[in-house]
Specification:
By secondary structure, this protein is mostly helical. It has helices at residues 2-23, 26-29, 49-62, 64-67, 82-87, 95-103, 135-152, and strands spanning 36-38, 44-46. Helix 3 (49-62) crosses helix 7.
Length: 163
């Protein structure tokens, strides 16, 4: 009986854990209808699940120190939610505009470059995590940022009440 218990209990625990993990996995939350985001004013960009996973991984590695959960730790009034991205000048609510921002960031009103303070491709000599990011990587990060409001709703950019 002890041998059976030694095999049965761990197997049962593993099955329960796997079933819980699979029902709550990130990929299960993503519906294929939300895998698109504006590429620019006229065109939509489509993202595969692999691109979104890569974008999430790269975002967490390169951006989440200041933008965990879509907030902006240095300025809580500006987050990465859809409304804030749209209100920026120029607006940053498309893949192309976010890529441009990640290459050379500007203030929210668009009047000054903040590349010396904000990680960017332009300031990769100061911010080493930005050195190895390719165009494909920037595309994936932008997709992650733009699709998160559809996946986690108001939690994205919601701040301390959610994270």
């Amino acid at each position: 009986m002890n041998n059976l218990r030694k095999i049965f209990v761990p197997t049962l625990v593993s099955i329960i854990f796997i079933s819980i993990a699979s029902t709550h996995s990130w990929s299960k939350e993503v519906d294929s209808s939300i895998w698109t985001a504006p590429l620019n004013d006229n065109t939509k960009a489509t993202f595969t699940l692999d691109q979104l996973k890569k974008g999430k991984r790269l975002f967490n590695n390169s951006c989440s120190v200041c933008h965990a959960g879509g907030i902006t730790k240095t300025n809580p009034n500006v987050s990465l939610d859809s409304e804030s991205l749209m209100r920026a000048t120029p607006s940053r609510n498309s893949v192309e505009s976010l890529i441009n921002y990640m290459k050379d960031p500007t203030t929210f009103d668009g009047t000054k470059s903040i590349a010396e303070f904000h990680p960017s491709v332009k300031s990769a000599d100061i911010f080493p995590k930005m050195r190895s990011l390719t165009e494909e990587d920037l595309y994936a990060i932008a997709g992650h940022i733009l699709i998160q409001p559809e996946i986690v709703s108001e939690k994205w950019g919601g701040g301390k009440i959610y994270f």
